[in-house]
Fold this protein.
Amino acid sequence: MRKKLVVCAVILSVAGSVVAADRPVAPNGIALYPDYLSWKVVAPSYREDKGQIRVITGNEIAVAALKAGTKPLPDGSVLAKVAWKAEKHPNFPVASEPGAFVQVEFMVKAARKYKETGGWGFARFVGNTLQPYGKDKSFVVECFGCHTPVAGNDYLFTKMVKSP
Amino acid sequence: MRKKLVVCAVILSVAGSVVAADRPVAPNGIALYPDYLSWKVVAPSYREDKGQIRVITGNEIAVAALKAGTKPLPDGSVLAKVAWKAEKHPNFPVASEPGAFVQVEFMVKAARKYKETGGWGFARFVGNTLQPYGKDKSFVVECFGCHTPVAGNDYLFTKMVKSP
Ligand code: HEC
Ligand code: HEC
């Protein structure tokens, strides 16, 4: 029993630690994908109630599937949503541009592994320290709850932008 | 003289034509860069007076210079600004997402060639037909005029987003 507790403590401290191999790790074990701003644009978005401006990007697998209209997205797809405080441009106040970094969130597709949350693993990293969000892995209940109304779109709110 | 006129007519018809090598061409000769949505994100932006949501992307040369803080940007830098009509998300109306495509604009750095407009060549392609904007090449007066207040930032409004 004591052995089990020790093992648990070690697992918890690893899962909850801010850095693993130099990358922050969410309480459910998902590590930050550091290259999320090198991925292709899925869409910009603006959240007026929170005063945030965002961009949603996707890795190659996700973007290829979104372009082809493949639903559900295949395993290996990862989407990132990056949020900044929206600030009025000093030279052009009717335009809002990104100010301070707020957070980055990920949805990682692994249909079997995350079958209880629609096949998606969720993770959020907050502020300039990229602090993993959530005390334990039950934080995903909040994410999944809010994404459930869009179950018909594979739990995704965002569609690939249209361009001619 | 007749020869000169014929040459002029040919040049004009080429410059003003909607398609050259399958790409629309602006009246100043700048052809659409078809891969602008594969470029890296510089920043999202939101224009409340026009109800538009945008994303600014840059080619490799531009993004490398912006990251390094190199000003003015080197020749070969190209920035794109893509605009969509902002629409409230049907499942989440406080979030605005891209609807219909409005236009794509480019700024192309060639310090010598475009020295009268801060070293930047401007081009805009409107709507799903990507109609080149401007009756003749004097259309750039409008672009340059509006970008002149940000001459101190190499005529760019947008800064590279910050992320940790
Ligand atoms: C209160 C509702 C709500 C909650 C809670 C929520 N989301 Fe979202 N999420 C949204 C909406 C709405 C969008 C669409 C884009 C936007 O609003 O900027 C979105 C978009 C996303 C995207 C981009 C893909 C898509 O579906 O459009 C990711 C990734 C994401 N959320 C991750 C998370 C994670 C991780 C959590 C929990 C830690 C979370 N979300 C919790 C409402 C929510
Ligand atoms: C009425 C003012 C105005 C005019 C006219 C204007 N722009 Fe801009 N432009 C802006 C502002 C403000 C931004 C910052 C981003 C935003 O508002 O979405 C911008 C951004 C851009 C960008 C992205 C790089 C940057 O500077 O941020 C490009 C490319 C661009 N404009 C091209 C053009 C072209 C091409 C034309 C003319 C055909 C033009 N602009 C005319 C105001 C203007």
